[in-house]
């Protein structure tokens, strides 16, 4: 089973970790705009000098593939594929993407 998670926020990483705990044979991939995931909550502390840059980065769960610098611009739930700004397509069996409450209708395809 291939799971695709769009976004490497704390929620996306928690979803990936949960999927790996459910079944280690799941292929879990995270697509994110950033090069690597970081904690947005810690940004004010970084700017204030209370933490160093390395402290804001989040760990990707073991067994999860992170593909950074990819911005998803189109989701085709019927074909089970997403497309990025670079034109690349990524297929999935199930995907997780919840940006706004209204996205619930396409969260699990």
What do you see in this structure?
The protein has 109 residues and is of the alpha/beta class. The protein has one domain (2-106): FAD/NAD(P)-binding domain (3-Layer(bba) Sandwich), CATH 3.50.50.60. It contains two helices and seven strands. The protein has helices at residues 10-22, 43-48, and strands at residues 2-6, 27-31, 64-67, 72-76, 81-84, 89-91, 94-96. The protein has a four-stranded parallel β-sheet with strand order 3-2-1-7, with helices on one face. The protein has a three-stranded antiparallel β-sheet with strand order 4-5-6, with no helix packed on it. Strand 4 (72-76) and strand 5 (81-84) form a beta hairpin. It is globular, with a radius of gyration of 15 Å. Residues 103-109 have low confidence and may be disordered.
Features:
109 residues, alpha/beta, FAD/NAD(P)-binding domain, 4-stranded parallel β-sheet, 3-stranded antiparallel β-sheet, globular, disordered C terminus
Question: How would you summarize the topology of this molecule?
Answer:
Elements lengths: L1 E5 L3 H13 L4 E5 L11 H6 L15 E4 L4 E5 L4 E4 L4 E3 L2 E3 L13
Parallel strand pairs: 1-2, 1-7, 2-3
Antiparallel strand pairs: 4-5, 5-6
Fourth-level CATH superfamily? FAD/NAD(P)-binding domain
Number of helices: 2
Could you tell me the mean pLDDT? 89
Please write the string of helix (H) and strand (E) elements.
EHEHEEEEE
Q: CATH fold name, please?
A: FAD/NAD(P)-binding domain
Shape: globular
Uncertain runs: 103-109
> What is the helical fraction, as a range of percent?
10-25%
Separation of termini? 13 Å
Domain count, please report it. 1
Given helix and strand content, the structural type is alpha/beta
Oligomer: single chain
Keywords: FAD, Flavoprotein
GO molecular function, one term: oxidoreductase activity
Cofactor: FAD
InterPro entries: FAD-bd_OxRdtase, FAD/NAD-bd_sf, FAD/NAD-binding_dom
């Amino acid at each position: 089973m291939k799971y695709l998670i769009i976004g490497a926020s704390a929620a996306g990483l928690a979803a990936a970790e949960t999927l790996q705990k459910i079944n280690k044979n799941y292929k879990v991939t995270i697509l994110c705009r950033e090069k690597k995931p970081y904690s947005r909550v810690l940004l004010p502390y970084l700017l204030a000098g209370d933490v160093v840059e390395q402290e804001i980065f989040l760990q990707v769960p073991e067994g999860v593939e992170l593909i950074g610098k990819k911005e998803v611009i189109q989701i085709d739930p019927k074909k089970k594929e997403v497309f990025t700004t670079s034109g690349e397509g990524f297929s999935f069996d199930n995907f997780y993407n919840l940006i706004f409450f209204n996205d619930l209708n396409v969260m699990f395809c």
